[in-house]
Write a structure and sequence with these properties.
GO terms for molecular function: alpha,alpha-trehalose-phosphate synthase (UDP-forming) activity. The chain contains 16 helices and 16 strands. It is α/β, with parallel strands linked by helices and about 475 residues long. A ten-stranded mixed sheet has the order 3-4-2-1-5-6-7-10-9-8, sandwiched between helices. The chain has a six-stranded parallel sheet with strand order 13-12-11-14-15-16, with helices on both faces. The protein binds adenosine-5'-diphosphate-glucose (ADQ).
Length: about 475
């Protein structure tokens, strides 16, 4: 049986416990590794003076983690540079924020060569390799260049941008060409998959074969839609935990009879936080008679603080929440509670359950797991309402949410009123339909769908020996 080699920018150590602060993705990949055995490889998060390629190996229960330190220039050009200042904004349709610099592109390529060089000796003949996300797009090609004839799959956790936007990236065609080194590429939605095929076909002259196989210069790759889910069972257990119950009670007490609206996001411009605050402000202005019935709790821990656009969004939100509270607050009521820190998953489960409305309004999101977690944490007898951006990948699976255009303050305002007034029977009907989907297509379903498809690729296939 094949072992699994998971490769991602950062690595989670085996914990044997599901209650920690780790995300659903880590849990899913750990489960896959525990079942198939293997290695999880990536950057250690540490900086070294000069790159040595020395691997830090930790053998845990079921699988081994292998990490490597990067030097300062790699971290600047590869991680803070190309990954977070070039590809992240571009893939989230923000070409106004994308920085195109040859130094970043060169550093990205170099770091991926270094990853390939380091992990290659760890890969055995029968292993299946699964590379995660936009940090490592050319890694499959680099492994092929080093004689790796294994099955190699790639999963993209972000959106894939429309071809006209991707075309602004100077090395777009070269980058996409490297993706033909993979046997399988997975996307969260049909829309991202079609955008990928559209660029490959119309801008590069690739051809579609058999519906889901795309061919370019003698190499072909299978593309599939494989939406990630959450561990629904784990989330239900978390919601029943003592911490979640305590949090629920505390939140209800501090809400003093008001309905809580909750937003939980990394502090990132793609999450539409500024637009969300403006939509909420519009609601406060348009519905003075109802406004004191609610308050918004926005939890947003800072991320990627080394990148300037992230510092800017933080300032914008501080100003905006200050202005809204300044204009609307009263002796006994503050409209926005804005909290800049992360919480453990059991605390979050309690917060979600205590909230009448989950407000998830990214401008673009590959999937968005918070939307699914919010639904999974609800009381089946009296569930809250999910307001969801139609531009999140999750919207393709969660049509029973109240779907909004996150750029429209009016739609956000209307949706808040609709959610507040929604009869219990309708809330239960919508919740049940979403919950069925969350339970059916959970995170184990996701990783099995991907690894099964990868293992279907014949070992001595056309990629073997390709360079
Ligand atoms: P992210 O952009 O990080 O992930 P998301 O899918 O919402 O976004 O996942 C965030 C995870 O972090 C969730 O499990 C959530 O509970 C947790 N989290 C968020 N804010 C938190 C806070 N304040 N405290 C504690 N935990 C918090 C990327 C893509 C997404 C895609 C995922 C998985 O951008 O589109 O859904 O990968 O593929």
């Amino acid at each position: 049986m094949s072992r699994l080699i998971v490769i991602s920018n950062r690595v989670s150590a085996p914990t044997g416990s599901h209650s920690g602060a780790q995300g659903g993705l880590a849990v899913a990949l750990q489960a896959a590794l525990a079942e198939m055995g293997g290695i999880w490889f990536g950057w250690s998060g540490e900086q070294t003076d000069a790159f040595t390629g020395q691997v830090n190996l930790h053998r845990g229960d079921g699988y081994t983690t292998a990490t490597v330190d990067l030097e300062e220039q790699d971290i600047e050009e590869y991680y803070n540079g190309y990954a977070n200042r070039t590809l992240w904004p571009l893939f989230h349709y923000r070409i106004d924020l994308a920085e195109y610099e040859r130094g970043f592109a060169g550093g990205y390529q170099r770091a991926n060569e270094r990853f390939a060089e380091t992990v290659r000796p760890l890969v055995e003949e029968e292993d299946a390799v699964w590379i995660q996300d936009y940090h490592m797009i050319p890694l499959g090609q680099e492994l092929r260049n080093r004689g790796c004839a294994n099955r190699i799959g790639f999963f993209l956790h972000t959106p894939w941008p429309p071809r006209r936007l991707l075309g602004t990236l100077p090395e777009a065609a070269e980058l996409v060409e490297t993706m033909f080194a993979y046997d399988l590429i997975g996307f969260h939605t049909q829309e991202w998959l079609e955008s990928f095929c559209d660029f490959a076909q119309r801008d590069m002259g690739a051809e579609i074969e058999d519906g889901d196989v795309i061919r370019y210069r003698g190499r072909s790759v299978r593309v599939i839609v494989c939406p990630i889910g959450i561990d629904a069972g784990e989330f239900r257990t978390l919601s029943d935990s003592e911490t979640a119950r305590d949090t629920f009670r505390q939140m209800k007490l501090s809400a003093t009879g008001r309905s809580m609206i909750v937003g939980v996001d990394r502090l990132d411009y793609s999450k539409g936080l500024e637009e969300r605050f403006l939509g909420y402000e519009r609601f406060l202005r348009e519905h003075p008679e109802t406004r004191k019935e609610v308050f918004l709790l926005q939890i947003a821990p800072p991320s990627r603080a080394a990148v300037e656009t992230y510092q800017r969004i933080r300032n914008v939100l501080e100003t905006l929440s200050g202005r809204i509270n300044g204009e609307h607050a009263d002796l006994d009521w503050v409209p926005i509670r804005y909290v800049n820190q992360g919480y453990s998953r059991d605390v979050l489960a309690g917060v979600y359950r205590a909230s009448k409305i989950g407000l998830v309004t990214p401008l673009r999101d590959g999937m968005n797991l918070v939307a699914k977690e919010y639904v999974a944490a609800q009381d089946p007898e009296d569930p809250g309402v999910l307001i969801l951006s139609r531009f999140a990948g999750a919207a393709a699976q969660m049509e029973e949410a109240v779907l909004v255009n996150p750029y429209s303050a009016e739609e956000i305002s209307d949706a808040i009123l609709q959610a507040l007034r929604m009869p219990r029977a309708e809330r239960i009907r919508r919740w049940r339909a979403m919950m069925d989907g969350i339970e059916r297509e959970d995170v184990l379903w996701w990783r099995k769908r991907f690894t099964d498809a990868l293992l279907e690729v014949p070992l001595a296939g056309p990629k073997a020996g390709a360079t």
